[in-house]
């Protein structure tokens, strides 16, 4: 009978230890969704547009205008052409991107009386008009010194670059 009593006590001790370990496991499984939620929030913050766009101007990157972004569809032979361009160092395709200029507010402009404006060129002669006299101004020929001589510069011949591809002084 004593051995039976020892067996029952041993069974109760085993049941208590199993219950304790299962409650510990249940507590851990309740903590996992909270931990996963916190990790997802960290990843979302790390990949957020604001976080990625804020340091971009410091390294020279700009956000393109919506209309300037093009979707390209690759075709056969595009990979080989891209590899050749990379090998040659030809990274530019099309026109160079020009960053948009910040809008400057316009300065107020004084109203103009159309009757007070004069034409700047005489339509009959094609000569410029003097604003003070409103008469066409004849062009002035530069004075030529008959004793002056002009020298013709010696013709230059282009120098072929060296075989190494360097710049010759």
Describe the structure.
This protein has a domain at 2-60. 36% of the residues lie in helices and 0% in strands. The protein is elongated. The protein has helices spanning 2-46, 49-53, 78-88. The termini are far apart. The longest helix has 45 residues, at 2-46. The chain is built from 3 helices and no strands. With 169 residues, it is an all-alpha fold.
Order of helices and strands: HHH
Residue runs with pLDDT of under 50 for 5 or more positions:
165-169
Strand content: under 5%
Number of strands: 0
Total count of helical runs of at least 4 residues: 3
Overall helicity? 25-40%
Quick one: overall form?
A: elongated
* N-to-C CA distance: 112 Å
**Major sheet attributes:** none
Structural class: mainly alpha
Q: Keywords for this structure?
A:
mainly alpha, 0% strand, 3 helices, single chain, 169 residues, elongated, disordered C terminus, 36% helix
List the helices and strands and how they pair.
Blueprint: H1 2-46, H2 49-53, H3 78-88
In short:
36% of the residues lie in helices and 0% in strands. It contains three helices and no strands.
């Amino acid at each position: 009978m004593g051995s039976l009593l020892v067996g029952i006590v041993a069974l109760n001790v085993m049941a208590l230890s199993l219950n304790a370990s299962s409650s510990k496991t249940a507590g851990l499984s309740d903590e996992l969704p909270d931990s996963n939620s916190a990790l997802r929030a960290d990843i979302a913050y790390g990949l957020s547009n604001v976080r990625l766009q804020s340091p971009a101007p410091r390294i020279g990157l700009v956000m393109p205008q919506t209309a300037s972004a093009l979707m390209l569809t690759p075709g056969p032979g595009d990979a080989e052409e891209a590899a050749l361009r990379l090998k040659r160092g030809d990274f530019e395709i099309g026109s160079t991107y020009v960053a948009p200029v910040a809008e400057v507010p316009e300065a107020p402009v004084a109203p103009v009386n159309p009757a007070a404006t004069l034409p700047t060129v005489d339509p009959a002669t094609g000569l410029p008009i003097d604003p003070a006299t409103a008469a066409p101004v004849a062009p002035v020929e530069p004075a030529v010194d008959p004793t002056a001589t002009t020298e013709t510069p010696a013709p230059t011949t282009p120098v072929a670059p060296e075989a190494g591809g360097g710049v010759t002084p």
